[in-house]
Amino acid sequence: MPSRQQINAFLRQYRIFLILIVCLFFMLCSLLLINRSGFHNASLFDHHKIYIHEDGSQASGMTEIDRDWYYFDPDSGYMYTGLLETEEGTYYFLEDGKQAYGVQTIEGETYFFQKDGTMAQNTFYEIKDGDQAYTAYFLENGTMAKGEVEIEGTFYQFDENGQIQISSTELEKQIEAIQSNYSGLAEVYFKDLNSGTTIQTGNVSMYPCSIIKIFVMATVYSQIQEGNLEKSDCETYLENMIIDSDNTSYNVLVSMLGNGDPHVGTTVVNQYCASLGLEDTAIYHGLVPGEGYFEGAHENTTTPADVANLLEMIYNEEILTSDACEEMMDLLKQCADDTGIVSSLPEDVECAHKSGWALANYLDGGIVYASFGDYLLVTFSDSSYQSFCQEISDCVYQYLLELSNF
Fold first, then answer.
1. Do 372 and 393 sit in the same domain of this protein?
2. Mean pLDDT of 324-350
3. 109: left (phi over 0), alpha (psi -120 to 50) or beta
4. Do 190 and 273 share a domain, yes or no?
5. Model confidence at 399, in pLDDT bands (50, 70, 90)?
6. Is a pLDDT exceeding 70 seen at residue 32?
7. Is the same domain home to 226 and 109?
8. 266: closest CA among 354, 239, 320, 274?
9. Hey, which residues does 147 pair with through a beta bridge?
């Protein structure tokens, strides 16, 4: 009978034999796999992917396989996934190892990989989203810009999807550069009627000249709606007052609002303005040259914001009836003065506005119906006549046009 020592020695030899058999089996399996072209696990115990060419060589570096590009580590031969920085640029390889192109979301951030596979950096790029296309900007680290970004000295605004928007910082900077060239009051109110982006540089009360007539117009329509005035009695005066800026028509309408007493009429206008929240606007006297002039205890007054707010209420049909608002906008579109806001617009761009002027004072406020979107613009100046308004109108239009072309 064999001794315990003999039995233990046999068992040790048997275990070694089994281990050798198993190792040999795995080596043979690995050799069989490696000798077959295509993708394989590195070994039975290593699930990293490798690629074997038809000639039996193992893929290394950038490799094209069935018209897709992959990257295999030059040392290990492992297929690469994720971001890869090289001297040529940064690439991204998906979970299946294929090189990525176009828009990619990585850890919550959006990137863009160009036709050659490199990451877009410090550049604008057109993004296609279904039938829509828009321009986005990709920062130095490759992420899509969001919020406000300064690029080569110019400020840009991007929404949460990376789509370029109006930068109030940039447009205000350009407006203030123009303002700095003018003395006295030079005020601007701008609002994009689609996004709501608003810029207001100053809101000091000023003698309004004929721009005050839009407040009288709105009050007349309110009294027509309430049955206190007959529309047929007012139409000609409204047309002459808004289209041709006729002062006599203004004086007559204010008197009609007061049942023949113009001072009562001014109270009706002021109360209506206050009811709309236009608390910085008031009329006290008539306008000359023109018939029916009446004096007042104070000067007429308004602000750019009040002019803008009334125009926006009419535009959005927030006051009176829809028909009344449409009629008021139609009158404003026919305003004969084209020396202010309108002078800097292309001929095919419509503008509903009302201007006013006296000596060096020039005020203009209106809605611009541009192909890229409607916007509201009001300018007040007491020292430059039309030139300030013209420069601001051109600045705003060109900025928005350029933005729409991105």
1. yes
2. 98
3. beta
4. yes
5. very high
6. no
7. no
8. 274
9. 158
Domain stops at, among 165, 195, 214: 165
Q: Which tens digit of pLDDT belongs to each residue from 185-229?
A: 999 999 999 999 999 998 899 999 999 999 999 999 999 999 999
**Is 38 inside any structural domain?**
no
Rounded CA-CA distance 152/182 in Å is: 28
- Containing structural domain, residue 321: 168-405
68: β partners: 65
User: pTM above 0.70?
Assistant: yes
29 lies in a domain? no
CATH number at residue 221: 3.40.710.10
Number of domains in the chain: 2
What would the two tokens of residue 19 be? Answer: 């281990």
User: What is d(CA 236, CA 240) in angstroms, rounded to the nearest whole number?
Assistant: 6
